[in-house]
Amino acid sequence: MTIDIAKGIAIIAIVLGHVHRGIWASGLGTYSVLWFKVPFDHFLYFWHLSVFAFLSGLFVQQSITKYGTLEYLRSRVILIFYLYTLWQVLQIGVKLLLPGGSNSSSSWSDLYKLWVPEGQLWFFPWLLLATVYSVLLKVWAKNILGYTAIFIAVVLAFLSWGWFDKYIGTQGLPLLIFFILGVNIGFKRLSNFLQALKTFQILGITIAGFAIFLIFFFLTPAVPPTVYPENAVGYDQVLAGFVACISATCAIIGLACVLARIPGSEWIAYLGKQSLPIFLAHIIVIGAVRSIMMRSHITGYGIYLVVLTVVGVVVPLGMYIIAKRLRIPIFEVPASIHKHLAKR
Q1: pLDDT tens digits, residue range 91-103?
Q2: Global pTM?
Q3: SS3 string of the chain?
């Protein structure tokens, strides 16, 4: 349950981060909370994406052992490409049909520009590229090829730290090292390690991780991995950002492990299990609800932050339940495609 809780914490933070950015982009932020804008944004972006990148890599080796390399890659390519293409069209379409529901302009030609990911959807092509890179180069292998692949990923991460462009292949590059770390550790090894620790030991690791993160967050010029700063990023900012990111990610995993041993945390695990539909639909949901709230002349940064975060998590869950019952394939690959491929 630790992994699901960690995903649950991360997906809440992702929704919260997008709500926060949307508020300011919509002109709803006020001078009284301006001091909160950048620090809060950076606080979230230091760890929520790195947690997801790490967790996404945990099951790669296990899946390859179970299904084989070609079958695993084929299933991942189909799933990621299908969901990415579908939601790219849906998200851009909603922006075009609901003026005021988005903070960025779009045109009908953007519907087919798959090389320019819409909003949070950049994570899908990134995940596909990270998976193919890791599997084909066997980053877990203890040989020249594996070590070289890891070295290239580390160099690429440090050179691109704090850089985020709009095209596929130029987004989220620093997160590759977290994905590879997850691939190398694997689910079973991480699970066995965490289960062997006492609760007070896990708590100690969690507190230490948060302490290190906060020290680097407040006392150094650390830069988050995927937040493009106004000025050029120096090596000191990259190194500090890397330490902050690693320590925060470890702290979240530790916190998830502690919560997994406490009754009442099942709801967070449930959010983690359903993190995919939440991730896919939350931008459309919060954009639409924010537009309604603005037209209703509702004001207040805190009100928008709380309301939009809640609906950004809850409404996609409702959409997922309805889509599953009605067999509408917007959160999974249609069964017909699976049957067609199985016959080949």
Answers
A1: 998 888 765 555 5
A2: 0.93
A3: CHHHHHHHHHHHHHHHHHHHHHHHHCCCCCHHHHHHHHHHHHHHHCCHHHHHHHHHHCCHHHHHHHHCHHHHHHHHHHHHHHHHHHHHHHHHHHHHHCCCCCCCCCCHHHHHCCCCCCHHHHHHHHHHHHHHHHHHCCCCCCCHHHHHHHHHHHHHHHHHCCCCCCCCCCCCHHHHHHHHHHHHHCHHHHHHHHHHCCHHHHHHHHHHHHHHHHHHHHHCCCCCCCCCCCCCCCHHHHHHHHHHHHHHHHHHHHHHHHHHCCCCCHHHHHHHHCHHHHHHHHHHHHHHHHHHHHHCCCCCHHHHHHHHHHHHHHHHHHHHHHHHHCCCCCCCCCHHHHHHHHHC
